[in-house]
Design goal:
The chain is an alpha/beta fold. It has one domain: Alpha-Beta Complex (DHBP synthase). It contains 6 helices and 10 strands. Strands 1-8-2-3-7-4-6-5-9-10 form a 10-stranded mixed beta sheet, with helices on both faces. A hairpin with a 6-residue loop joins strand 2 and strand 3. Helix 1 crosses helix 5.
Length: 206
């Protein structure tokens, strides 16, 4: 049965954030709000949580998981970025974008695209997830909370708890969340390619 945390969307209560982070450190899987939509999150090296996300979302091994970072210092440890790519990403972050880039050895192999050896990374602009990242002090393994055969992600914390009560360990509710996933920009070829249109304005990359 999942824990339920009702937090303020702009000024989340430190006690609730601390308890949610402890669940993550203990190997748990959480549902949490972002600047685009709800997502599933776990600590980066949690192999069991990775498998649980695959089961919940019915994902194959070619799915790009995302590492959610608090700042560029974290992001730079996880992916290789030429200077021009760094500048392009920095211009729109934090924000509702995911960037696909070649991964460094810091990223567990199970998270990588099996052929391209790439991974998604992003820096969100949402007080709750930024508070989680500040307390956790490491990136979050993350995936959009989009259930199989559904066109849009779940947007309501209580509905998420009702539907995933035995599939996740905690739900963080900060009020109504968006229903549009991030815009995904694929830099794996060295040139920006829009892999998915979403909440972020894609015009800079077209």
């Amino acid at each position: 049965m999942a824990r339920f945390f009702d937090v303020h969307p702009v000024d989340p209560q430190p006690r609730a954030i601390g308890q949610a982070v402890q669940i993550l450190r203990d190997g748990g899987l959480i549902a949490y709000p972002t600047d685009s939509c709800y997502a599933l999150g776990a600590v980066m090296g949690n192999r069991e949580a990775l498998d649980r996300i695959r089961q919940i979302r019915h994902l194959d091994d070619k799915h790009h998981f995302t590492l959610v970072c608090r700042e560029f210092a974290q992001l730079g440890q996880l992916v290789d970025m030429p200077n021009d790519v760094f500048r392009a990403i920095k211009a729109v972050t934090p924000g509702p974008y995911t960037f696909i880039l070649p991964a460094t050895r810091e990223v567990p192999k199970r998270m990588l695209h099996p052929k391209k050896k790439t991974v998604g990374v992003r820096i969100p602009d949402h007080a709750v997830v930024r508070a989680l990242l500040a307390e956790l002090r490491e990136p979050l393994l993350s995936s959009t909370l989009l259930l199989p055969d559904e066109e849009e992600p779940l947007t309501d914390g209580w509905e998420i708890k009702e539907r995933l009560d035995h599939a996740v360990d905690a739900v963080i509710d900060a009020g109504e969340c968006g229903s549009e996933p991030t815009t995904v920009i694929d830099f794996s070829s060295g040139v920006a390619e829009i892999a998915r249109y979403g909440a972020g304005d894609p015009s800079r990359f077209e």
